[in-house]
Design brief:
By secondary structure, this protein is an alpha/beta fold. It contains 20 helices and 21 strands. The radius of gyration is 28 Å and the shape is globular. Bound molecules: ligand C2E and calcium ion (2 copies). The site of one calcium ion has 4 residues, from loops.
């Protein structure tokens, strides 16, 4: 009896003009049970194949596309077809030839929701099949989710008025009656898709009430709420009734103006601004005036936004710029403004970082990484902090990106390496088994003195090289792949280990895993945090564990925030875990605080309630 696998019945399009490669791929697909394989030699043939299935997207499995296919803009095509968040998504495996591949870069980076996997051409059959299975699984997940959503909508439609009202409340902001952020994003996505196709214009206004928190503080939330309602009514009167208008934050509104040019949108925004400026708001005896800052981004922008989230972000950035420039202003999004802002930030931080390096204003914190099979601490990750002027601790997200842009990151990397090794050297002998994982920046391997620093420091302190693991991200290889690999090998020759950090955050992660000589794969925290209630994340983590295991690498999950997630990960087969459930980053190594969790990890006890667990716990 043969078992029918619905995935194998999907149509696979092989868009490859090189007949040898096309035959090879077809053979591989057939050997793996795929029967409906269609071929395209040119870009337009892909659309010819797709057209009859426009209302049955589930029949299409995936497209294997040669990056050089004649008459085909492969990047644009894959972007437009592979990013849908529902069942209409068509995943892509893109075969990159050496000639077109950007030098030193394995592939065009593609993050986010697009189901694209890039690999070298000619395709390695084993990797190709792994990629196909992985992408088809993700597509199936999206289709399922869409079906569930549709089912839910149908059920709701057939039920009573009370439920309809509940539905309205879920989609709307209770205070103002405007749609909420989720609904706004969903509707904006539809509008953007349609406008793109029909080449229609439109603009998004991001409206932020200036100094709103002041009114809240002085007069209380009731008055603040009343102001928001009155402003909503005011703006509503100024724009067409059909405009999509949403409250997306406490005092933040988004308004989409369909069929309006940039110029027209600017005029409307100015009208809103001046109307609010002239508006008077009374609370008892006191009369307040309010003002708004407005950011605009338009669909015909020189650098058009691809997704609703991006469009909202651009308009928010423009609005922030209006605020920086004195509030009560209208500002259109301009990429350069964002750059100017970043530049200002850089100029502010550079002397602070230089001083911190000179005067050792940095310090290290340590977060345990725990073995999930028994709760023992495997090692600690070293995380840098800066001491601020006022004694406050500054976290790396504030200064590392600036340091990277301004070429100061290498000095920081060396500082951390030296200080981490010194730290190990000063530990008492009973702690001589403790080892550390050190983060290296993306550009660490551009400088040969890194190797020298590590070697000299280890010789000087007699610290065993096996006690060091270096965490690197994919970006380490962006500039020079060969040099990076060479350097990793040299540092490994000393006896140190490597971990590939933030794994899965970019879609070429699997490519890097194949070529980077690393010992650990550190699964990005975004897949871990919602593992308990997100089936897709669980599927993804499972496939990462499977692939890492096949390649002989150990897996680490970061952002393990609850004991239940730790248990889930243990069940999935992840080797190590790190996160608040085991311990936050601390100034000292805290031995023994993993004990309670160790008991749970060791037993096969049923899931625990997180709150119950915390009560009895010592961490
Ligand atoms: P990363 O390497 O991914 O480090 C993990 C970050 O997640 C750390 O933030 C850590 O405090 C935080 N974290 C740990 N457990 C949890 C959890 O359960 N939940 C949540 N929400 N977060 C958790 P941190 O220390 O602020 O570091 C941020 C990033 O800065 C690091 O990300 C790393 O990319 C960079 N960084 C930190 N230290 C260094 C360093 O010494 N050198 C270099 N080059 N980069 C560093
Ligand atoms: Ca890290
Ligand atoms: Ca990470």
């Amino acid at each position: 009896m043969t078992v029918c696998d619905p995935i194998k019945e999907k149509i696979i399009i092989v868009a490859e003009h090189d007949s040898v490669s096309a035959n090879q791929i077809t053979l591989t697909l057939q050997e793996n049970g795929f029967s409906d394989i269609r071929h395209a030699n040119r870009g337009e043939q892909i659309y010819d194949i797709l057209r009859p299935f426009h209302d049955q997207p589930e029949k299409i499995g995936l497209i294997i596309l040669n990056d050089n296919l004649p008459n085909c803009q492969s990047f644009e095509m894959s972007q437009s077809l592979s990013c849908a968040t529902d069942g209409s998504v068509i995943p892509f495996v893109i075969l990159m030839s050496v000639a077109t591949k950007p030098e030193g870069n394995q592939s065009r980076t593609d993050t986010g929701k697009c189901l694209v996997y890039q690999m070298d051409s000619p395709a390695d059959p084993r990797i190709l099949m792994l990629a196909i299975h992985f992408l088809l699984q993700l597509k199936r997940e999206r289709t399922l989710r869409q079906q569930q959503e549709e089912q839910l909508i149908n059920e709701l439609a057939s039920k009573s008025v009370i439920e309809a009202k509940l539905k309205f409340l879920a989609a709307h902001d209770e205070l103002t009656g405007l749609v909420n952020r989720n609904t706004f994003e969903r509707q904006l996505r539809l509008i953007m898709n349609l406008s793109n196709k029909l080449k229609k214009e439109g603009a998004l206004l991001f409206i932020d009430v200036d100094r709103f928190s002041l009114i809240n503080e002085l007069e209380g939330f009731d008055v603040g709420d009343r102001l928001l309602v009155e402003l909503t009514i005011l703006v509503r009167k100024l724009v067409p009734a059909s405009s999509l208008f949403a409250r997306i934050g406490a005092d933040e509104f988004c308004l989409f103006l369909e069929n309006k040019t940039k110029k027209q949108a600017h005029i409307i925004a100015e009208t809103i601004r001046t109307t609010v400026e002239n508006f008077r708001f009374f609370t008892g005896e006191i009369c307040y005036s309010a003002s708004v800052s407005i950011g605009i981004t338009s669909l015909d922008n020189a650098s058009p936004a691809q997704h609703p989230g991006e469009m909202i972000l651009h308009s928010r950035q423009a609005c922030n710029f209006a605020k920086i420039n004195g509030r009560d202003k209208v500002k259109a999004y301009n990429q350069d403004d964002v750059a100017i802002k970043e530049r200002r930030r850089d100029i502010y931080w550079v002397p602070i970082i230089r001083k911190a390096l000179r005067e050792s204003d940095f310090f290290l914190m340590f977060q345990p990484v725990v073995q999930l099979n028994n709760g023992d601490i495997s090692h600690y990750e070293v995380l840098i902090r800066m001491r601020g002027e006022d004694g406050k601790t500054i976290t790396p997200d504030q200064f590392i990106p600036v340091a990277e842009r301004m070429g100061l990151i290498h000095a920081i990397d060396l500082w951390v390496v030296e200080n981490a090794i010194d730290f190990l050297a000063t530990l008492p002998s009973y702690m001589s088994r403790i080892s550390l994982a050190i983060n290296l920046s993306g550009s660490a391997f551009q400088y040969p003195d890194l190797l020298q620093t590590i070697r000299e420091k280890l010789e000087l302190t007699w610290v065993d090289a096996g006690r060091l693991t270096f965490e690197i991200t994919e970006t380490a290889a962006v500039d020079n792949f060969e040099r990076t690999r060479d350097m990793i090998n040299k540092i490994r020759d000393l006896g140190c280990k490597f971990a590939l950090d933030d794994f899965g955050a970019g879609f070429c992660s699997f490519n890097y895993l194949k070529t980077f000589p690393v010992d650990y794969v550190k699964i990005d925290g975004q897949f871990i945090r919602h593992l308990e209630d997100n089936e897709t994340d669980r599927i993804l983590v499972k496939s990462m564990v499977e692939i890492a295991g096949k390649l002989g690498k150990k897996t680490i999950a970061e952002f393990v925030e609850t004991p239940n997630i730790a248990l889930r990960l243990k069940d999935i087969g992840v080797n190590l875990g790190q996160g608040y459930a085991f311990g936050r980053p601390e100034r000292n190594l805290l031995d023994g605080h993993q004990v309670s969790l160790a008991i749970i990890l060791n037993s096969n006890s049923p899931q625990v309630s997180n709150s119950e667990f915390r009560k009895n716990d010592t961490f």
